[in-house]
Predict the structure of SRPBCC family protein.
Amino acid sequence: MNNLSIIFIGLGLAVFMLLAYAATRPDEFRVERRLRIGATAEQLWPLVGELRGFNRWNPYERKDPLIKGRYDGAASGIGSRYLWESDKVGTGSLEVTGVQPGRAVQMKLDFVKPFEAHNQAEFALQSTADGATEVRWSMHGTANFMSKLMGVFIDMDKMVGRDFEDGLHNLRQLAEGGQP
């Protein structure tokens, strides 16, 4: 056996081991961030529970000022929908699927580009004794094999979590009286 054959066998074994490791990763993922904001849940609700309000502090909207977005369906509440197309943040849609006014909103998040993904997002508001509100932003979904493979190299919690943190800080600035 020559050196080139040994190199190819070694590379093939390394690729096989990488693929086998990726296959053992969890079938689901969850990203969640929380932030205490000095505003009541009632004050925050229009910024969290309505898509137009959300887009005032949405970190992904800020990443691409040229994003092409449009609203569809109901004006607010269940069935309201936002679709976007962007070279920087991809193409997809966000649809409100559940609402507990002043407390929580659930959304279906569908990505088309740069890769297809179907996830669930939620904003939950928890009032605190001092009149502030803890805001929780979470996203979860199924991790297909490509997601598992990408996860070997990219920590989704850190990558997406950083965006969630930025967004929650934008929300805090907006809600506490300043423009983010």
